[in-house]
Amino acid sequence: MGACMLNLVEYDIVFQEVPTEVSLALTIAGCPVKCRGCHRADTWNPNLGNPLTEAVLQQLLQQYQGLISCVLFMGGEWQPKALLTALKQVNQAELKTALYTGLEQIDPKIQAQLTYLKTGPWIRELGGLDQPTTNQKFINCHTGETLNHLFHREAG
Ligand code: SF4
């Protein structure tokens, strides 16, 4: 499909990526950040998967109605218009929204539609959100609060 479409590679129900939420995670094809050691380098090709049309998203929201509290976009900010439309659709369904991006910041118009946002590329030496050394940040967009501590394993 055309250049202004999100392509959905796969979807899954996840519990840890967005703490305190049960999320429908949508993996979007074509991440341009290209971190060294990316665990999903197989999804970098923007032509993978199928177009995430309004109808496809609606069908998924119906399928998981009552079972999820949040929809997590694993990327997609490289198609800002399409992502914005999809986020509005999720908000209209009265679900929370989350985005995992490898960028340090995103279009404020997109951020305004988000409940949660994870920013920052994957840098192996620094580790992910469960490491105190990480460069990545997970925030509540409504309160501005950083929620990285929710990813840390119990201190023992
Ligand atoms: S931002 Fe995420 S998906 Fe994109 S290259 Fe980096 S680790 Fe991979």
Q: Considering DSSP H and I runs of 4 or more, what fraction of the residues is helical?
A: 10-25%
Biggest sheet: strand arrangement: 3-1-2-4-5-6-7
Strand content: 15-25%
- Tally of DSSP β-strands: 7
Q: What is the element layout, followed by pairings?
A:
Layout: E1 7-14, E2 23-28, E3 50-51, H1 54-63, E4 70-74, H2 80-92, E5 96-100, H3 108-111, E6 116-119, E7 137-140
Parallel strand pairs: 2-4, 4-5, 5-6
Antiparallel strand pairs: 1-2, 1-3, 6-7
Helix pairs in contact: 1-2
This protein binds iron/sulfur cluster (SF4).
Q: How does this structure look, described?
A:
With 156 residues, the protein is of the alpha/beta class. Helix content is 17%, strand content 22%. The chain has a 7-stranded mixed beta sheet with strand order 3-1-2-4-5-6-7. β5, α3 and β6 (116-119) form a beta-alpha-beta unit. The longest helix has 13 residues, at 80-92. It is globular. It starts with 6 loop residues before the first strand and ends in a 16-residue tail after the last strand. Residues 31, 33-35, 38, 40, 75, 102, 121-122 line the site of iron/sulfur cluster.
Provide key terms for this protein.
22% strand; 7-stranded mixed beta sheet; globular; alpha/beta; 156 residues; binds iron/sulfur cluster
In short:
This protein has 156 residues and is of the alpha/beta class. 17% of the residues lie in helices and 22% in strands. The protein has helices at 54-63, 80-92, 108-111; strands at 7-14, 23-28, 50-51, 70-74, 96-100, 116-119, 137-140.
